[in-house]
Amino acid sequence: MTKTGILYGVGVGPGDPELMTVKAWRIISMAPVVAYLTANSTESTARDIAKPFLPDDVIELKIDMPMRTEREPAQEAYDRGAAAITEHLKAGRDVAMLCEGDPFFYGSFMYIFARLADRFETIVVPGVSSITAAAARMGRPLSARNDVLKVLPATLEADRLREELLTAQSTAIIKVGRHFGKIKNILSALDLISKATVIENATRANERIRKVEDVEGDSLPYFTTILVYTGSETW
Amino acid sequence: MTKTGILYGVGVGPGDPELMTVKAWRIISMAPVVAYLTANSTESTARDIAKPFLPDDVIELKIDMPMRTEREPAQEAYDRGAAAITEHLKAGRDVAMLCEGDPFFYGSFMYIFARLADRFETIVVPGVSSITAAAARMGRPLSARNDVLKVLPATLEADRLREELLTAQSTAIIKVGRHFGKIKNILSALDLISKATVIENATRANERIRKVEDVEGDSLPYFTTILVYTGSETW
Questions:
Q1: For the residues A45-61, what does the mean pLDDT come to?
Q2: Interface touch B14/A126, C-beta < 8 Å
């Protein structure tokens, strides 16, 4: 009987390939199959990041995601992806699923994990998340001492964002994208805009860092994070 | 004239040396000087983690921290550490300061950064933080979709902890240590205790994972994190 393969959820970090962990590098170098999500069968940020470490003869398993906001087509895509991964695992081949940042920090890996972890040995390799990468690139602490740090998806309703911002010392607003205008208005109204910095594509070649008050327009790339700091700066 | 050295704040990750980034590995392998905080001139968790990657001939600069809670002795220790690092940088030697987890995620590196970054080129290398490592080891997502994620130092007052816990979908309570009893009481009172898992020394040899309700006593090791999840689990 063939021994079944191991499923790895591998965080490849925020963008700079050197910010992959040694463990991610080892697993990606040795796994016979790598899997990743793609949009329109082509783009995969996670694959771009891991590219320098992919062996020439690796089998690449693309899980194509429909570019729609409805829940059902995405669920069907995860079902198909899980089925394709299952075939490899049953044949005894380890599968490394590549995940931007960290697999369990607002990642899509959980959808594959939920479908397969009870049937196959599954190992999650944590990665550097976009929020600590953003702070490193801005050159200022993300959080210190007794600060309350909050991570707020920009998709939340304005009232909720306002309420949470008011009681945090440090806030990372993630998935900013087309919600930038809304966020900027909220930060202005709360008089927090001077303490807010925005970073697009942290640690990637097209990285861009600006003060939120200097940015015009309502929309920025999806991989945009805003950090707001109101804690004591008596470092 | 000698070119001055570069100061690196290097995150070495949560404990497993393989969870160091490739970048941290490269910098630690090449820097002529590594610096780190010690308690009583001996123990350094960050050095323990980086040990497999330290060259034999590296100069080790220990910054000894007084084991007291007052602010002033610690500030003096950082002043002395910054002065010692300055000597190496002025002599043209790069200095890599080793930091557990991520340098800017509740780390001590900010105290050295605040003293030196305006005078010397300083590069911060982000690392895997304890909270995503904890989720990976527990085998469950840290946060998903539109969850509000909060990081709460266990040192906060009970009222504040209660308030923040009530409005989060996911919470990481860090630096639990001697505050465990307080935290357990709060989680019981809020009826959250069945959703709370505690991890000591995540990814280290002495790692231990338990349900909070199964743990007796008022105190646990300093490097203890509690994750509480109340978001939707319809993954």
A1: 96
A2: yes
Considering B101, B125, B149, which residue would you say is the last residue of a domain?
B125
**Residues A115, A11 share a domain:** yes
Pair (B64, B135) in one structural domain: no
Nearest-Cα distance to chain B for A73, in Å, is 14
Considering the domain boundaries, does residue B1 fall inside one? Answer: no
| Closest-CA residue of chain A to B133 | A126
For B59-93, write each residue's pLDDT tens digit: 999 999 887 667 788 899 999 999 999 999 999 99
* Domain region containing A36: 7-125
> A121 and A11 in one domain?
yes
Q: Give how far the C-alpha of residue B66 lies from the chain's centroid of Cα atoms, to the nearest Å.
A: 18
pLDDT at A143: 96
Give counts: helices (H), strands (E), chain A.
7, 10
Residue B1 pLDDT > 70, yes or no?
A: no
pTM across the whole model: 0.96
Residues in contact with A10: Cβ distance below 8 Å, sequence separation at least 6, in sequence order: A24, A27, A28, A50, A96, A97, A98, A99, A103, A125, A127
Q: What is the CATH number of the domain that holds B46?
A: 3.40.1010.10
3-state secondary structure of A1: coil
B209 to chain A, any CB pair closer than 8 A? The answer is no
Query: Is there a domain that residue A1 lies in?
Result: no
